[in-house]
Each structure stands twice: as structure tokens, then as C-alpha cells.
Write a structure and sequence with these properties.
The structure holds two protein chains of two kinds. By secondary structure, chain A is α/β, with parallel strands linked by helices. Helix content of chain A is 33%, strand content 27%. Chain A has one domain: Rossmann fold. Chain B has a six-stranded mixed β-sheet, with helices on both faces. In chain B, strands 2-1-4-5 form a four-stranded antiparallel β-sheet, covered by helices on one side. In chain B, helix 4 crosses helix 5. The chains are: A alpha/beta, B alpha/beta.
Chain lengths: 230, 249
Amino acid sequence: MTQALLQVSNLAAHYGVSQALFDVNLTILPGQVVALMGRNGMGKSTTVSAVCGLLSPSAGKVSFNGHDCGQMASHKIARLGIGLVPEGRRCFPNLTVRENLLMAATEGEWSLAKVCGLLPRLSERLDQYANTLSGGEQQMLAIGRALLTNPKLLILDEATEGLAPVIRQEIWHIVANLKQAGQSILLIDKSLAELLPITDECVLLERGTTVWKGPPNALTDDLKDRYLGI
Amino acid sequence: MPNPIIEITDLNKRFGAIQATHDLNLTLNVGEIHALIGPNGAGKSTLIKQITGYLQPDQGEIQFLGQTITQMSPASRARMGLAQTFQVSSLIMEYSCLDNVLLVVQARSGSSFSFFVAVRDDANLIQQAQDFLQQVGLSDRQHLRASALSHGERRQLEIAMALALEPKAFLLDEPMAGMDPAGVKQLIESLKTMREQAPILLIEHDMAAVFELADRITVLDYGRVIASGDVESIRNNKQVQVAYLGVAS
């Protein structure tokens, strides 16, 4: 039996006194693309924060590539091989584009030249500070930065948000190519038309709890209506 | 004859070598939704910042309600009735949703000058704030801190705060970013109602929403207007398809 790359079991987490996650369960096998779905406020980004060590779980288990990382510091989890494109970009405003891209870069398939080829707008702006970029350009920078970590697991949390349609198409094309190349990916995105064709497994969250898991073709209209409001 | 609420004439703004706004002319008319689209970095948010006064143009003129506002402070423009939501949320994160909206209702109503009733005890102000939260579907979140909201919900809260200003024009910078499909559907319906209250200048990359809502679309690239017209003319414009929409849109 294939060992899971990421295993999240019975995960619970709080923001202060308010509980955001109650019972999240999620498995990503090597090479799998998993979509974490649910309406706004159901715990998708909080789950990502807990997986990446940005929020300490209050119960449950997070295991990545055989390491128990539930209480591990976020930088150590990143070094295990998780590359995150966080919701809201979170670029370093007072570093240049080049510095943002290279700060966590590791040897591997993705190089600065390859990222610049993928996102040419960044190559025009390498020596500009990140806080001088437009919102969409900062989004591109966050994607490029994550790819340059050459991660074992790439987490894209609303990675196409704020991008022009033509760039979004390009990003989805790249995600499909990454999947073809065997990259494991956890996806959160509202564009179901683009998301579902490249997804192996969907995980539905409702009020911080995993309520359904299955392949995209088993995602019925009833489930979409009940849990996604579509 | 269209009646412009906002009229921008020959606007220019440069950041070093980058011409972010280039001889730009644009109007926002009564009752309309005018969408502003274009590639990332085309100068859309820079234009909004010049309209709201957070950036000074190098040249050109901006008129609002027939008055030249080019040199006015952002606060003065807001008091005249310009309401803005931001591409990146700008809420008071430690405050509850209700308190965030209450602050705007209080500022607009001038009740901050009342010494006799604490704002949090003023049933009339609270009812108004709750009504605005209900309009954007956040009634059940009213007592949560803004920091506990999801990204999409924060956008909804910003819309509630813009509504609470009861403005003469809305400037909405990517209001649908991060919203789930149900939220987008709800916001589209809200915007259809909001346009009756005041015209909307809308920056948005969700083209299904733009095509459903917009009366006019203006397309920017490198700070210039490359096309402007109704939905059909923009959808079929080859230059816009290549620069922005892509093949499948």
C-alpha cells in the first residue's frame, strides 16, 4: 500500500477561544492532486495554516512524508518540502522580486530562469521592490517563490485570485503539467471548471469538519448545492 | 445625454520609468456599472487611488459631482460621497463585524458628537449597521472579529462598510476576489441593487460577473485605454482577447 505524503487525521484548531476546525481528515498520496473545497469560512485556509505550522493544532495529527509535524515550527515543515502559495500573497514588501524569489529557493527542476519564463512579467521587474508591484504581479511572485522551493507538496490557496483571465489560463495549464510530471498538489480555488478536470480527489469541508471525500465525478449536484452553494 | 458623476480628463501618472496612467479619459455615469479590466499591472488600482486621492496625478483633472477634486484630500472626497473597497482588505481586525460597520454608520450620521448615548447602545445605529450586514449576508457573523473571517467574508464586510457610507459613487477594486461561487452569486445581485443607489466603477477579473453586470467596459493596458464599449464589443475585440481575455473566455 502506498504511503501517504500528507495525512491529516481528526484535526482540530482554535483562533483564541473560537474553534475553527473540529474534525478535518485529508490524505494526499504521492503524485495526487487533491482539492479542498467548501464555502467561505468553512476552514479551508485554516486547515492549510495548521498543515504548514502557522497555527498550532489543538487536537489531531498532521503527518508529512513520514514526519509527525503537528507541533513542528513552520520553517521546519517548509524544509520538509511543503511549498505554499498563501491566500493574500504575503510577499516581503521591502525585498526585491529577485530576493523574494530566491530567499527560499532550492536546487531542482524549477530555477529562476524557468520561473521567469513562466511568468515573464516578473522578469521585467526583478529589481523592483515587491510593494511596488500590482496585486496580480504579487500573486505571480507568490507562485514563483513557491515553485522555486521545488516542493514535494505544492499548496495553492486561491493562487489564481486577482489574476487576469489569460494568466489564469496559463497557471492552470502549468498546474496540469505539474500533475503530469508527478507533482503532489493541494488546491483551493473557486474555479470549479478549471479545478475539477485536474483533481484526483475532492475533500468537502463544512464548519471545520470533513463531510465528504471522493473523486470529482462522484461530486453530485446535490453535494455542490449543499456544501458549495452552486 | 449621459450625466457623469465622475469625469476624468487627460490623466497621467508616472512611477520612475513606468507610465502607470497615460492620457486617460473616463466617465462614470448615473445608474451605470462601468467595469475597468486589463492585465495585471495595467494601472487599474493606480487609477482608483488617484480618484480617491491616495495618489496625486502628475497631470490631468478629476471631477466628481461637477466639482474638481484633483487636489482634495482622500477624507474630503469620502465626505463628498466616494466609497471605495480595496484590493487588499483594510478592516479593523480587532473589531467585530458589527463594530466595523457601526463605525462608518456613526461617522456618516454624525452621532459621534452625541454625549448622551454610547454608540454601542444606540439601537438606531445598531439596527442600521445590522441592515447593511444583512444585505451582504453576514448577519450570522456580526459578533465575530474581522480577523476570524475568511478572506471572502472580509470582502463582504468591506461592501457592507461601503454601503453604510450611502455614497454617491462606489469604487470597487476586485470585490469578488476570494469569494466562493455562492458568495459571488449573492454579490452580483447586491451590485445590481447598489447601482440604483449610486453608480459603480468596478475592477474585477471574474469575467462572467463583469459580462453579467457591466453597462460599459473599459480596458487598460500599460496605463492606456486600449478599448471601451459595451459587453459584446469588448468580448469580440481581438486586441482585448489577446492582451487579457485569453482564448476560451
